[in-house]
Amino acid sequence: MTDVRTPDAVEFLDRLLERSERNPDRSRPASAAPEYDRLSTAQQVSRFHDQMAAAERFGAVELLRGKRDRSHLIERVRVRDPELLARHLGRPPAPATAQRVRNELLPVATAGEPWVVGLLDEMTARWTRNEPAYRLAAGQADAAKEFFTLLASISRQEAKGLDARTFSQKATNDTKAFDRHASRLAAVLGVQIGQPGAAADVVWAHIGLERFSHPVHLKGPIVVDGASGRVVDGRAKPFASIHPEMLSQLSVLVRPTAVLTIENYASFNRQVREIEDGSLVVYTGGFPAAGVIELLSKVLLTVPAEVPFLHWGDVDAGGLRIFRYLEENLPRGPQPHLMTKELAEKAGQPADPEPSLGSIARSESAIRNLADWLAFGSDVRHLEQEALEPRSVVPAADHGLG
User: Fold this and answer.
1) In 3-state terms, what secondary structure has residue 263?
2) C-alpha to C-alpha distance for 339 and 310, rounded to whole angstroms
3) Which region ranges are annotated with the description Disordered (predicted)?
4) pLDDT in tens, 324-363
């Protein structure tokens, strides 16, 4: 291997190689003018010239010299053969490195769903151009293996119902691996669930991961009985809290007049304090965690199908995505409560359209028309549910039915 120990020469040639690898189909070879202002002495200039001449003899670059009185200077260095230039610099070409890393990661990726292998192909294409992918360079093979181990496990639904540390330990034998990759996991999974750029807690809810297991707040005719008697009574004032681990002991005392889920904590508090209509009210905590979904699933499978199920949330992109998530993950979907275009036009604030809601608008969702307005309509307005007074979800004559 040719000696290229002069730092300025190595840095210069590295940048040239990077340009070549990032655009392998370019019509003209990558080239650059030497930065003579960084070479402050005649000795440094001479050493730089020697290193460029060595690269030229190796067949890696072509030197274009000045004319007449500048013939002693190199005016431009042009890449002749990127593969030879990589060898001259003492490293394999980026495509070779990318393929080697892909071969190492493929058994890990194929242990997951097909989309995990698709992601590996996407990242390999970027590594081939000497670009990082999700802030991982091809040279970070160990970190990439950890990342794909987590992704493959998530794709197999193995994160569901676990906190981050427990899941991380089970997937990788390292409790902190998930934290090291959390931001890139959220970025990848956000795209996978059709919500690019979604907040991390939204993504974790989709995969059933609970960073911390929270109790479910509710008010209504359900109880938890233990060996020594009643542990939780959902009729307690102002409301009760049931930990997900108690759900196997949960039972519905009497048929509620309705089931209502509420996105916002302030609205939940007002509803359970101000409205007495015999309904079961459940706080989703924003995007519902796995425990909320499990509780609601059990309740909806227990109560008769004619018991209305409704959801009250914000009229904005986040609120509609929460509504859609409930539709997609429960035995039956809710109907909207106080989530209408008319209320938003009356009490909401001006907002820009959100085209990403187009997928909900094209679905069979109970809020598809609202999604279509928010995605493509004119004079769009967003409505935070706190702007509205709580309202009963059942007719006055039905209040208190059991």
Assistant:
1) coil
2) 10
3) 18-38
4) 989 998 999 999 999 999 999 999 999 999 998 999 999 9
CA gyration radius, the chain? 30
Cis peptide before 29 (omega within 30 of 0): no
In this structure, which topology does domain 216-398 adopt according to CATH? Dna Topoisomerase Vi A Subunit; Chain: A, domain 2 (3.40.1360)
- Whether 61 and 78 have beta carbons less than 8 Å apart is answered as yes
- What one-letter code names the amino acid at 274? E
Residue found under tokens 């493929």: 106
Residue 63 structure tokens: 């030197």
* Residue 186 contacts residue 203 (beta carbons within 8 Å): yes
Choice between 275 and 227, residue whose per-residue pLDDT is larger? 275
CATH of region 7-88, choose from 3.40.720, 2.60.120, 1.10.10, 3.30.460: 1.10.10
Secondary structure (3-state) at 302 = helix
Q: Which residues pair with 354 in a beta bridge?
A: none
Count CB-CB contacts under 10 A for residue 354: 18
How remote is the C-alpha of 336 from its chain's centroid?
A: 26
Within 194-329, strands assigned E span 216-219, 222-226, 229-233, 240-242, 250-252, 259-262, 280-283, 309-312
Please give the Cα distance from 88 to 12 (Å, whole number).
Answer: 13
